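Quick review question:
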């Protein structure tokens, strides 16, 4: 048995992690690969952190393509082989003419949930503008959505399964930059990386719109470190690279911004 209470101590996503602990125990007992439903980025990050202490179980996250945000997790005994092919996901195309009635990510998600499926059964949604969208789902939902997802907003759609290799993934644009700061405070580093004033950045932090490594941070004075991923809702992400101390005892920080 896994040390459940110890693993759950101080976690944010308690229900999700408790469910994954149950599945991990099942994987250990049955010698089978057990799959979770789709998890959000904060859930994935926290589960990976919590399970990193365990030696008897391994996990692998996969959402259909390398940059996928929502991912399923495969759990297996540590001694078993585990690879992406064991994380079952299916791609669907939702095709329609959205030229005169543009649909957003929220519209496509709402239409899918409107058929009666739950959020955990759906992965990423890739919006293709006037042509519709592509979505990733658990395999057991594919046929149901092909039959039942027939309209998004006012637009009739045809939903059909496609090969996972047909996903139209847009590589994120990235920009490399360097900043020199007096401290490694979140507001200082993030304002430099996102190219906005420090007071504006503090507003975002106070509003709960800033996450570091997918965890919401509301303290502008929080310290960042090399390897941290800073995300602002609707503004993209910022990766903190190498940090060096200058002769004047300031911090030279390499940053990569993803847009």
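Suggested answer, residue by residue:
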């Amino acid at each position: 048995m896994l040390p459940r209470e110890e693993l759950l101590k101080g976690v944010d996503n308690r229900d999700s992690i408790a469910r994954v602990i149950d599945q991990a125990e099942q994987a250990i007992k049955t010698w089978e690969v057990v799959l979770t439903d789709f998890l959000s980025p904060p859930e994935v990050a926290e589960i990976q952190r919590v399970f990193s202490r365990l030696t008897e179980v391994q996990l692998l996250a996969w959402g259909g393509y390398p940059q996928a945000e929502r991912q399923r997790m495969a759990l297996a005994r540590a001694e078993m082989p585990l690879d992406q092919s064991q994380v079952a996901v299916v791609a669907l195309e939702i095709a329609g003419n959205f030229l005169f009635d543009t649909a957003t990510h929220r519209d496509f998600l709402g239409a899918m949930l409107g058929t009666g499926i739950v959020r955990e059964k759906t992965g990423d949604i890739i919006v293709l503008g006037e042509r519709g969208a592509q979505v990733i789902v658990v395999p057991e939902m594919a046929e149901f959505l092909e039959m039942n997802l027939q309209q998004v907003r006012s637009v009739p759609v045809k939903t059909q399964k496609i090969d996972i290799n047909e996903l139209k993934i847009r590589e994120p644009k990235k920009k490399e930059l360097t900043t020199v700061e007096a401290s490694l405070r979140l507001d200082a580093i993030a304002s430099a990386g996102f190219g906005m004033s420090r007071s504006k950045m503090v507003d975002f932090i106070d509003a709960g719109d800033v996450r570091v490594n997918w965890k919401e941070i509301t303290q502008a004075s929080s310290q960042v470190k090399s390897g941290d991923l800073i995300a602002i809702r609707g503004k993209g992400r910022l990766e903190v690279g190498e940090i060096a101390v200058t002769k004047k005892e300031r911090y030279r920080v390499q940053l990569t911004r993803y847009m």
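Why it works: Residues 90-166 form a domain with the Alpha-Beta Plaits fold (CATH 3.30.70.330). The radius of gyration is 21 Å.
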